[in-house]
Amino acid sequence: MTERTHPESDPVHSAARQVGRIVELLDILWEQARNNIPPPYVPVSQLRVMYIVEGEDGIRMRDLTRLLSAAPPSVCRLVDRLQALGFIERLPSPDNGREVMLSVTGSGRDHLARIRECRDQLLIQTLADMPFPKRTALAEGLAQFEQALADDPMLRARQDNRAAPIRPDVARSL
Description:
By secondary structure, the protein is mainly alpha-helical. 60% of the residues lie in helices and 7% in strands. The chain is built from 7 helices and 3 strands.
């Protein structure tokens, strides 16, 4: 007879719940901070498209649809809105005239940079309040967590383009 572990006492389940709560808090923080980001306001669903296209410049529309696990008409509308804002451009595929490739424009990259700068400032304020050893441990743990996420088969298409993990020597300087 085997023992069953209750999810409440399992460290992996506890960590998953904690990460989920952190994501929820960050969602709230980002939403509150959106007034600090110059217009236009870009909804989360459109930002997700921009992040993917930025990470995989020249991604085919069908691959974006697969990564988002969304219906093609829905993805097309998201891309239409981003194209109307001047943040994404459609390009013809060099090897198949019926396929469309996507790229983030210069103004789209600028907008993403402004969003990231605002978010970085919010996180820097929070991290500055943490004791140095805890910040170091967090940075090291996040680097491992990022690697584990990047290895997830659902994100495999983005694996070659993921951000470089935080190096341990950089983590120690936090």
